[in-house]
Amino acid sequence: MDVMPSMNEYNKKEKGYLLNLARSSIENYLKTEKIIDPDPGEIPSKKLVENGACFVSLHNRKNNSLRGCIGMLEATRPLVLDVVNNAVSAAFEDPRFKPLTLEELKDIKISISILTKPVEIEIKDYKDLLKKLVPKKHGVIIQRGWSRATFLPVVWEELKTKEEFLSHLCMKAGLMGDEWKKPGMKFFFYEAVEFEE
Question: pTM of the predicted model, to two decimals?
Answer without folding.
Answer: 0.87
